Amino acid sequence: MNKKVSVYRKEHFCAAHRLNNPSWSEEKNYAVFGKCNNPNYHGHNYEVEVKVTGEPAADTGFVIDLKYLSDLINETVIEKLDHKNLNLDVPEFLDTNPTAENIAMVIYDILRSKIDERMNLQVRLYETPRNFVEYPAS
Amino acid sequence: MNKKVSVYRKEHFCAAHRLNNPSWSEEKNYAVFGKCNNPNYHGHNYEVEVKVTGEPAADTGFVIDLKYLSDLINETVIEKLDHKNLNLDVPEFLDTNPTAENIAMVIYDILRSKIDERMNLQVRLYETPRNFVEYPAS
Amino acid sequence: MNKKVSVYRKEHFCAAHRLNNPSWSEEKNYAVFGKCNNPNYHGHNYEVEVKVTGEPAADTGFVIDLKYLSDLINETVIEKLDHKNLNLDVPEFLDTNPTAENIAMVIYDILRSKIDERMNLQVRLYETPRNFVEYPAS
Amino acid sequence: MNKKVSVYRKEHFCAAHRLNNPSWSEEKNYAVFGKCNNPNYHGHNYEVEVKVTGEPAADTGFVIDLKYLSDLINETVIEKLDHKNLNLDVPEFLDTNPTAENIAMVIYDILRSKIDERMNLQVRLYETPRNFVEYPAS
Amino acid sequence: MNKKVSVYRKEHFCAAHRLNNPSWSEEKNYAVFGKCNNPNYHGHNYEVEVKVTGEPAADTGFVIDLKYLSDLINETVIEKLDHKNLNLDVPEFLDTNPTAENIAMVIYDILRSKIDERMNLQVRLYETPRNFVEYPAS
Amino acid sequence: MNKKVSVYRKEHFCAAHRLNNPSWSEEKNYAVFGKCNNPNYHGHNYEVEVKVTGEPAADTGFVIDLKYLSDLINETVIEKLDHKNLNLDVPEFLDTNPTAENIAMVIYDILRSKIDERMNLQVRLYETPRNFVEYPAS
Q: Does residue E11 belong to the interface with chain A, where contact is any CB pair within 8 Å?
């Protein structure tokens, strides 16, 4: 029988960004991205919710120690993104548009290599309390 | 490999309603629906969370522009339901009981025809922060 | 020295209402109250936050037992307003417009007579998470 | 076509607990569980979110009456866990470590036998707003 | 007798900023402002809570129409700050450090001249859900 | 003119406690404190909101650096209370009942001596999202 449990840990960071496609004209960028294209950037308080799914270990009752997961997210994701300009300070976004979708995929890729591959991983990223994304889709 | 991302947009409306089955007696309606059957209506602040799943476009990094999705929900759903009496003012509920389940299904049907059919759609409706529903079930 | 502490208890109810001044024409009511004037009503999930200020008793460490305060609010306020149409079902609003301001004042008057007069009382009422009022003003 | 809807009801309880594996030494327990191993216990405000999935009944528009579901959770789960020491007062945890994972599984087992087996059931348990679990995993 | 009521309206904007004192060296700025001094900026989702205190009008039951207050905040404050770089795009911060304290004072000054002087005004600004300020202090 | 601003920082801890007056009989303790008197303890996720009021410094724009305030609360309050049994592990409650009122007063006393006396200080403590206290009363 399925005894898998999902565990979630939520962390936060704040960052500046702008949405822009460098292969387009200024006019097209503004037409598509509107205020989010401001060349001087704007920013958000992002919330990252990381979901890890597996069977709890018999001796601990943990799928994964949430203190360990919290430390892992902080060391590999939050350190990299917090109080940063995503477009200028984060190599992954030098040629990738930092939409919520792309930020979630970057965070997933960072964490996937650090977490036991027998466990499923999913990342939910809140850009605001009313705009958020999830990768991979379930 | 699956590169699908889900994106979510949350909007709100407030409305009056009552739960009632017109083919039942008053007594049976009160027995089944209790306070929610008040003939003078009561009401809620509803939150609608719309989830759209697809692959982000290469040139924008968007599954769907959340500004566009927000405008679409406002024009087709919020305009129709906000500050309304669901039983009296909204044709879809003239002979359908406006339970959270049925309201979510009505909202889904409105939005389904407006969103690219290659994208999955799901609607979560909060009647209160402690009572909510999701359609279709995942 | 001031050893006064304020204690707060939050309760909720949902209700229908409309804003209307019966001494005005329909046109004027609509011009002033807009969508809130819908003759068929709309509704909200209200949150009531009651603040009581006094010195904690030496033997209990309580200003007022929050379980007692919760029961008092439920018996005198929530029973009266929950799942009701404020305009039609609640005598206090038969000739008083059920704005958030007026609802807060009605709740204050109900509770003031039940709570030791040496304690200060204040009521905050949330009509939505973004619209709320406080009476008396501090 | 799939006409299944998921409905959710959220309830809360507060409890004390400690994480401990009695077959380990004190040192090992402290090394694995850290502050959560405090022999004098610590505690949380837990939130339980219960999800029930099925087809709405034609005559009510309900998958399951949320008032009934709320009462059921309160009578079978909240009464048992609220204001308790999970390790000492709750038989299920006499030899099971009360991690969030295990608490969610215990709550699931209690509710599963009370809810129509044609309906799917899932339990999400918040230990804090930033640490939570879901069983069974979806 | 005091019949004053306070009414609150909450709006939001997102913006980039950095904390910096141009009369200091880079080293001193970094020592004082730490990560908030990033020359490439970072950003936040700000929430602005505006409190207006006065007596409700007899004919409306309103201290101030919250729809009007919402429009006023949007037209004078949100338009000016939303999706902007506070340091570069907003004249008030060209020589004022955009700390939460200073942003709240700027917002207060904008609104004070637009609201009837017999009414008290107070602004609360959330930079994050855990960091916020209020001006003037009560 | 008053240029004072209040700044707030919110931190959290979780702890076990019980309410009990050792000079009373078991029966009286149970009659007064009910479930909160459980001899095996229960617990909460507490949120501490610290408010400091003063004039922003001209060179920084800060009333007090919120990073400094956060560190101060963590080092002096959270370290002392987090993952503890308040009755057994915290000397201040060996003969003081750990009601929310008394916990807030203890936190205030710890912080008062560490913060410039020209600044006003107030502590709000959430025991649950619906039960909270503030000291000193304003």
A: no
Q: Which two tokens stand for residue E32?
A: 């004082």
All residue ranges of chain D with pLDDT < 70 are 1-2
Give the whole-number percent of chain B exceeding pLDDT 70: 99
The pLDDT > 70 percentage for chain C reads 99
- Determine whether the interchain pair D56/B96 forms a contact, defined as Cβ–Cβ distance below 8 Å: no
Instruction: Summarize pLDDT for E36-69 with one digit per residue, the tens.
Output: 999 999 999 999 999 999 999 999 999 999 999 9
Tokens 């909060």: give the residue. B126
Provide the whole-model pTM. 0.97
Nearest Cα of chain A lies from the Cα of D73 at a distance, in angstroms, of 20
Q: What angle do CA C88, C92, C95 make, to 5 degrees?
A: 70
Classified as helix, coil or strand, C17 is strand
**Chain E partners within 8 Å of C33 (Cβ):** 60
Q: How far apart are CA D16 and CA F44, in angstroms?
A: 8
Task: Find the residue in C nearest to F123 (Cα).
Answer: C5
The per-residue pLDDT for E2 is: 63
How far are the Cα atoms of A83, E110, F85 from residue E17, in angstroms, in the given order?
10, 20, 42
Exposed/middle/buried for F128, CB within 10 Å: 0-12, 13-18, 19+? Answer: middle
Report the SS3 class of residue B5.
strand
Q: Tokens for C60, please give them.
A: 């209990």
Q: Where are the alpha helices (DSSP H) in chain F?
A: 26-33, 66-73, 79-81, 86-89, 100-112
Res. B4: pLDDT tops 90:
yes
Just list the catalytic residues of E: 36, 83, 127
pLDDT tens, position by position, A58-92: 999 999 999 999 999 999 999 999 999 999 999 99
DSSP category for residue E13: E
Strand partners, F53: F6, F120
Catalytic residue, chosen from B14, B17, B36, B49, is B36
- CA distances to D14, D34, D47, F128 from D129, rounded to whole Å, are 14, 20, 9, 12
Domain that holds residue B104: 5-135
User: Diameter of chain C by CA atoms?
Assistant: 60
Residue E17 amino acid letter: H
Could you give the ipTM of this predicted complex?
A: 0.96
- Where do we find the tokens 């501090």? C138
Residue pointed to by tokens 């001031």? C2
pLDDT tens-digit map of A105-132: 999 999 999 999 999 999 999 999 999 9
Q: How many domains does chain A have?
A: 1
DSSP state of B75: I
Q: What is the CB neighbour count within 10 angstroms for residue C55?
A: 14
C-alpha–C-alpha distance, residues B65 and B71, integer Å = 10
Min distance D127 CA to chain F CA atoms (Å):
9
Subunit contact A133:B53, Cβ cutoff 8 A? no
C138 Cβ under 8 Å from any chain F Cβ = yes
Question: For chain F, what is the mean pLDDT?
Answer: 97
Touch between chain A and chain D: 3 or more Cβ pairs under 8 Å: yes
Write down the mean pLDDT value for chain B: 97
Q: What is the pLDDT of residues C25-56, one digit of tens each?
A: 999 999 999 999 999 999 999 999 999 999 99
B-chain CB neighbours of A99 within 8 Å are: 56, 60-62
CB-based contact (8 Å) between E112 and chain C?
no
The CATH code of the domain that includes E114 is 3.30.479.10
* Confidence grade of residue C13 (pLDDT, cut at 50, 70, 90): very high
Report the DSSP beta bridge partners of residue D133.
Answer: A7, D125
Say whether C12 is catalytic: no
Question: What does the alpha-carbon distance between residue A29 and residue F13 come to, in Å, rounded to a whole number?
Answer: 46
Alpha-carbon separation of residue B60 from A30, A40, B10, B120, E33 (angstroms): 12, 19, 21, 19, 35
